[in-house]
Design brief:
This protein has about 170 residues and is of the alpha+beta class. About 25% of the residues lie in helices and about 35% in strands. The protein has a single domain, classed as Trna Endonuclease, Chain: A, domain 1, CATH 3.40.1350. Helix 1 packs across helix 3.
Length: about 170
């Protein structure tokens, strides 16, 4: 049986892939994984064909039951190595996507013949250009609750990236 951490990781990947699918965005899984868990790729419609538009967004996926939820933000302790990787400014933008699950594993997911429900929500943040840290183990990251990782957000973001913008 998978560890609890691996189950959370799989749920977060499934969540992000489901959002991407409904947003009309392709996904790829970098192999081997060197800090990027999932890449989103814009697809363009050219005449009778669709093709990769060359627009990519890299995601670092995290899942937790230990985030601190407040009215306006979620606070999460991110390991320093990941923080440093996400604050860099590589040509391909990177986001942290954080799925916050209930504390009790039996509440993470429910299924009936009519629906499959992953409890709680995933939020995103860009740490691009954030200040370096003197911390040695973790950095507390604040994610605005308005930054839900959703279908409309992914669609708008991929359009913005295609126009040369950033997350």
């Amino acid at each position: 049986m998978l560890t609890s951490n691996h189950q959370q990781e799989a749920l977060c990947r499934a969540y992000a892939q489901a959002i991407a699918a409904l947003a009309g965005v392709a996904t790829t899984v970098p192999t081997p994984d060197y800090g990027i868990d999932l890449a989103l790729r814009a697809i363009e419609h050219l005449g009778q064909h669709r093709q990769d538009a060359g627009v990519q967004l890299d995601l670092q996926l995290r899942s937790t039951t230990r985030a601190h939820l407040f009215d306006t933000e979620i606070r999460y302790d991110l390991d320093v190595a990941t923080y440093e990787s996400l604050r860099r400014t590589p040509p391909i933008p990177r986001l942290l996507v954080l799925l916050v699950l209930p504390e009790e594993p039996t509440h993470w997911l429910s299924q009936t013949v009519d629906e499959l429900i992953i409890r709680r929500c995933a939020w995103w943040t860009s740490l691009r250009g954030a200040q370096p840290t003197a911390a040695t183990s973790s950095v507390r990251v604040a994610i605005p609750r308005s930054q839900v990782f959703s279908v409309p957000y992914v669609q708008a973001l991929m359009r913005r990236l295609a126009e040369g913008g950033l997350p």
